[in-house]
Amino acid sequence: MSEFDIVNKSYPQIDGLNKATGKTEFVSDLVLPNMLYGRVLRSPYAHARIDHIDISKAKSLRGVKAVITYDDTPRIKFGPRSEDWTILADGKVRFYGDEVAAVAAVDEDIAEEALDLIKVEYTELPAVFDPVEAMKPDAPLVHENKENNLAAEFKIEAGDVDQDLKNSYFVYKDRFYTNQVYQAYLEPMGALASVDLSGRITLWTGTQIPNMMRITYAKALGISLDKLRVIVPDYGGGFGAKMENNVHLITIVLAQKAGQPVKLINTRFDDFVGGNPRVAMYIDIKLGVTKDGFITGKDVHIVGTNGARTVYAPVIVATACYRPDSLYRFKSVRAIGHTVYTNTVPTSCFRGFGNSQMTFVLESALDMIAEELNIDPAELRLKNGIGENEVSIHGWKITSNGLKDCVLLATKKANWNQKRKKRKFFRGIGLACCNHVSGNRAFAREFDGGAGIVRIGRDGNVTVYYGESDMGQGQKTVFAQIVAERLGVPLDIITVEQVDTDISPFGMGSFATRGTLMGGNGVLKAAEDAFKQLAAVAADMLQAPPDEVECKKGKFFLKSSPQKSVSFKEVAEMATFKRAGAPVVGVGFYKPPTELPDPKTKYGNISPAYPFGCHIAEVEVDPDTGQITVTDYVAANDIGRAINPMAVEGQIQGGVAQGLGWTLMENMALDDKGKLINPDFLDYVIPCVMDVPEIKPILVEPVDPEGPYGAKGIGEPALNPVMAAITNAIYNATGIRIKELPITAEKMLKKLKEMKNKIK
Amino acid sequence: MSEFDIVNKSYPQIDGLNKATGKTEFVSDLVLPNMLYGRVLRSPYAHARIDHIDISKAKSLRGVKAVITYDDTPRIKFGPRSEDWTILADGKVRFYGDEVAAVAAVDEDIAEEALDLIKVEYTELPAVFDPVEAMKPDAPLVHENKENNLAAEFKIEAGDVDQDLKNSYFVYKDRFYTNQVYQAYLEPMGALASVDLSGRITLWTGTQIPNMMRITYAKALGISLDKLRVIVPDYGGGFGAKMENNVHLITIVLAQKAGQPVKLINTRFDDFVGGNPRVAMYIDIKLGVTKDGFITGKDVHIVGTNGARTVYAPVIVATACYRPDSLYRFKSVRAIGHTVYTNTVPTSCFRGFGNSQMTFVLESALDMIAEELNIDPAELRLKNGIGENEVSIHGWKITSNGLKDCVLLATKKANWNQKRKKRKFFRGIGLACCNHVSGNRAFAREFDGGAGIVRIGRDGNVTVYYGESDMGQGQKTVFAQIVAERLGVPLDIITVEQVDTDISPFGMGSFATRGTLMGGNGVLKAAEDAFKQLAAVAADMLQAPPDEVECKKGKFFLKSSPQKSVSFKEVAEMATFKRAGAPVVGVGFYKPPTELPDPKTKYGNISPAYPFGCHIAEVEVDPDTGQITVTDYVAANDIGRAINPMAVEGQIQGGVAQGLGWTLMENMALDDKGKLINPDFLDYVIPCVMDVPEIKPILVEPVDPEGPYGAKGIGEPALNPVMAAITNAIYNATGIRIKELPITAEKMLKKLKEMKNKIK
Predict the structure, then answer these.
(1) Average pLDDT, integer, range B287-313
(2) Is 3.30.365.10 the CATH number for A127-185+276-386?
(3) Please, which pLDDT band fits residue A423 given cuts at 50, 70 and 90?
(4) In chain B, N or C: fewer CB atoms in 10 Å?
(5) pLDDT bracket for residue B674 (50, 70, 90)
């Protein structure tokens, strides 16, 4: 028998039935009285001066209620990380897809027609698309005031890398390239905005960071924070992309101008050219080892694509610079990261957040080192892997750590030893590990943690308020389970409310794999507070002291004589009557034992808990076509404790499929003018069910001391090791290492031919 | 200088600008995705058997999504006070307008057309419309199981009435009739209902009793309470009518049947014939006095119209039986009230709730007694009026009491003494007093009081949740002022949220003039709780103990050195960060010192505070047409303390206008088949601005010990004395006393002619 009633058990997502039956009201389904529809006019050039915009014809089209250009916006420079945004283009467009003007009309067809009536005169300017090219002295400047197109530089150093590399038995050196990929969430970005008479704005949007976005947008609009309310309805995926984006602000400005609510949902084209795809990176690595396979120093230089304005690329490049440094026992590390403006779509977060790029590189490098040293790649990881209760080179306090178990269980399940020995022609097996965080203290100076509110009214229903954001990954279900477990009630009386900045706690949002641990602890503390209040009433009804009272399966009873009981609903009703109608409101919060890293050294414990993982891929390469098929996949992830094992498995399967797409299929391809040539799902192909093998998840549960019921996060570590596991398997199958993602059949075939030619 | 910053000051309603500019989203403005429109088929007969209903043609009309009859409903007998309701007619219709079937369609026109396609075969039955007739042994029975059509009998007795009347110097005896009037709120009743996949229902409706209604409706639908959520958007008036009504349940059943949201808003016709108008009453009174004008005994018999099913008529008749007994020092009282089924629309609450009917009678009787004794009517009231800190004959503990001041100030302002002496031809002046409650303990056995929640998030905005219902009377504004005063912040940072049974406290609702006192105390306590939490943080920031800290005008400061200060917003932000995102949530409640009346004697203190009033009307009667014009009006009301003087004046002006309409103009008139002949505002005429004189309110503020900042209620006492004040003025002008409302020009002219004939 499990020690839990609800937690650590598999349940379908509490909102799953609604989604499966089409009942869910996504942002795109919302309607308001007098609502208009918005559309954005985007730049057809990667870089051009706007000489003139004529909106007169568009404005006079019947049914058009507002046409806006830069002059209609507050004309404030802003941005979540760097003040290089304007709501619409301020005299110059900087990427193909840049927002030039927008229209609100009574229906979408009229809005579309109005876009055609806006006449813009451009003077094309020289453009640059590659970050390495963009750093060159003669490169065109994306922003005139940004020398060398440098958006940000990040440096970190610990120990004496030069010395350690010098003293190494072997130093692996190479350059890798991770490409730009699109998050491919099923619901495009968009928003519904409504402005009241006092100017207060309500913004409905599927965002991962309702509270943080609100701060950025208030600045962009030149209003105080209290004048903007953000509500997060159900939304169709995010994977990191759904943070700040001009589409939301354009919607707001249209609603302000029209004096009516406006809904603006990206078409798929808009979303491809105006979204926030993954940061492409050039990564140079030097990695030293001793003769017996102990890692010594690591030296890294990263050049990442910022795109035409700064979303979160600099922090992503920084993360790539040092996050995997706490996966192994490095003697010394050094990294320098340059985030570089280019005339391309602004890049930003995508599951893995830089760690996935660097893990691809590091785990590829380790694979080559294992070969060089003739040591089993799994053994190499076990030898170097950081352990339980160790402090990493950057001061990260690793507490629970299932890395070793992940490697042991994955290799066992994948039959690793046998398969590595008996190599088959053009079939291979590869392994990669990863670490990650469960929240990142480095993200905000003033704040870390999570909070919750649990309300129990007269009817005994339990409503949970939280401050993060469920983008479909199942946060609501996990929170419902945590609260149900703590209160001792069945899951079906729990409702988890959508995030509404007017009602919910302030939460950092859903990123950095922080939801379950931070938000989960927040709602757990709130449930504890509510439980105490109810227990006092129940104790009164049962004529016993409050600490004599327990609740299980919706019944309060005496620990000493469980037959003396009263139902949870009766207690809730009595509590309400005793308090003249006041519901039981439990408020709770969790402050993690994290440290703000030292600004210079970046030393400090940035997360309360660290998840680990080890994935093993098997591939088959078709020598005639270059086609790579992933035939088998084992994914062992340390998640502390699975609140909902089925949901964790779903996260792992999704992560692996997404990583598979990135590794083998997906790429945002530009023509020589910087125009995206595949802005749709016909040309930008993501894995379908036929491309994905059966993924075998292994849940490693070392029970984390900080996690709610021991849980750590899973969102990102589900993807981090996939690219290296697959490429290592390809190398194992072919002896070919392609260092530029994606490894398409075309690329593979070319390499196979080169190999064939060499053999000849 | 006032002792207050916000309270006791006049502010426009906080939602006034929205309403004035049409921005408010009333229930009728709401839209949901896939929403259908509902319409109700109503009985064309007052009493008939339903032999057959054919819905086949209606169902097959394109665009019709659901057609329902009784068989589609849960077929449960229910009702707020007596289980004599079904959701649609169960084989028999009992009044003209009774609900027979309903339709949901993609637009209102199709729904309307579908109604025409429903074929119902009826067999007409004998009907009865008058309650006195209905009690007769041979009267047709509205419900077969209700002998003599008796819905309820109420009896109350204190002291020896027979003896006291026998010993009186003079006993005034008469029969009065108060007619049936319609509440004439500007937004008709209606609802929007949505059902989720688990069967949980969300009902948006303008209701005065969201929480109480929910209990009745859960029973009607055969579901548990937690399966029904009620949300109260802004709505266009109630005046007592907007409580339980079949239109809401029909909307729900349509939504269940169609599997889509349904909005059903009454047409004005529907609302007239299917609403819940005022209980018409026959009232027989015997009232004794001593020679020097002291009231002795009062003996009353009331027969009230219940209509075809029981809403709240029995409690209204009971209220008429005894509420004004706590206005004067009665030696003895006795009352019997019969509430009688008739084949007419079900009657229910309307501002005054029985007290208005009885106050009309009592104050008319006192006028006649004053004349008989040749004592000034004002003096008669002062002589008998109950005083401060007295206990009334039914055990009501009168604490604050401004009755005497009301009489003195009203008579002074109206120039009463002079005008009574110098009578002009066909001009007269009349006076009437009233008492009332601020909440009524007799309404629910298990519960009395009010509760609130005050939330302050990171941005420093203050959100207030309450459990009553603002039907336009200004509760939200009053609560905002109370909370702003207590917190020490400006009014414009306060938002008062709509009532939502999933979020708000459980509240009894808006009736019995309970909102300001009960709800106001609830939110005041919640503000206190929130203030304590914030003060602790502010004290920390100002490095002082919490009780050294005060807040005024949005600034926390030290009492000892006010220049040391920190803004309310800064404190809210710091509190949020300190608590890892948890907002400050203040929860508070107020349990009044009321007593559940003795079930037999009804003795017990039913309210924490009792408002009083004295109104003086002046009229002019046109001897040629009978037209009565109210030329001047002084209304002195004891409201404890006015939270918002302008809003109180508005309440008084509205109450007087409504009373004027009832007294002189309004009447729901039936033809001999029981069909309402004036179901629209062309034929049912309510006072317009030309009919109403300048009303001069006088606010008497004795500061109640229980009220929030001393406030008592005003809603109902604003209307209670109007009918008698005007009729007493008419008597003063003409010597004619018409005892049946309304006193139309036609009736008056007839009486004038009779008088003229007598003189001849």
Answers:
(1) 98
(2) yes
(3) confident
(4) N
(5) very high
> What confidence score (pLDDT) does residue B1 get?
55
To which H or E segment does residue B112 belong? helix B108-117
pLDDT at A760 over 70: no
Residue A107, Cβ density class (10 Å: 0-12 exposed, 13-18 middle, ≥19 buried): exposed
Q: Judge: A581–B522 Cβ closer than 8 Å, yes or no.
A: yes
For residue B356, give every residue at least 6 positions away whose Cβ sits within 8 Å of its Cβ, in sequence order, or none. B178, B350, B659, B716, B719, B720, B723
Chain B contacts of A197, Cβ < 8 Å? 17-18, 21, 23
Catalytic residue of the set A388, A716, A740, A746: A716
How much is the mean pLDDT over chain A?
97
Q: Which fold has domain A31-125+193-237+242-267?
A: Aldehyde Oxidoreductase; domain 3 (3.90.1170)
- Each residue's pLDDT tens digit, A327-348: 999 999 999 999 999 999 999 9
Distance of CA B9 to the CA centre of its chain: 25
Q: What is the pLDDT confidence band of residue A64, given thresholds at 50, 70 and 90?
A: very high
Q: Which chain B residues are closer than 8 Å to A581 by Cβ? A: 211, 447, 449-451, 467, 505-508, 522, 589
Tokens found for residue B434:
């009233």
Q: How many CB pairs under 8 A join A and B?
A: 153
Tell which phi-psi region holds residue B602, choosing left (phi > 0), alpha (psi between -120 and 50) or beta. Answer: left
User: What is chain B's mean pLDDT, rounded?
Assistant: 97
CA A77 to chain centre: 26
What does residue B193 show for φ and ψ, rounded to 5 degrees?
A: -125, 140
Are A31 and B31 within 8 A, CB to CB?
Answer: yes
What CATH number labels A401-437+609-760? Answer: 3.30.365.10
CB atoms within 10 A of CB A146: 17
CB–CB contact B33 A31 (8 Å)? yes
Specify the pLDDT at position B2.
74
Give chain B positions within 8 Å (CB) of A201.
Answer: none
Which ipTM score applies to this complex? 0.93
Q: What phi, psi does A643 have (nearest 5°)?
A: -65, -45
- Is B281-389+399-441+600-759 CATH 3.30.365.10? yes
- CATH (residue range B16-22+449-590): 3.30.365.10
Long-range contacts of B245-248 (CB under 8 A, 24+ apart): B245/B189, B245/B274, B245/B275, B245/B276, B246/B85, B246/B87, B246/B88, B246/B99, B246/B274, B247/B40, B247/B99, B247/B189, B247/B190, B247/B191, B247/B274, B248/B189, B248/B191, B248/B193, B248/B203, B248/B205, B248/B207, B248/B213, B248/B217
- Residue A24 corresponds to which tokens in the numbers above? 């869910």
State the DSSP H helix or E strand holding residue B114, giving kind and residue range, or none if neither. helix B108-117
Active site residue B716: yes
Q: Tell me the whole-structure pTM to 2 decimals.
A: 0.95
Lowest-confidence range among A441-450, A549-558, A694-703? A441-450
- Distance set, CA A666 to CA A693, A749, B62 (Å): 17, 17, 47
Q: Is the peptide bond before A742 cis (omega within 30 degrees of 0)?
A: yes
CATH topology of domain B31-125+192-237+242-267: Aldehyde Oxidoreductase; domain 3 (3.90.1170)
Residue length of chain A: 760
All structural domains of chain B with their residue ranges: 16-22+449-590, 31-125+192-237+242-267, 281-389+399-441+600-759
Residue B457 and residue B572 in contact, taking contact as beta carbons nearer than 8 Å: yes
Exposure string over A289-321, b if 16+ CB within 10 A, otherwise e? beeebbbbbbbbbbbbbbbbbbbbbbbbbbbbb
A223 Cβ under 8 Å from any chain B Cβ: no
Residues of chain B neighbouring A226 (CB-CB closer than 8 A)? 459-461, 493
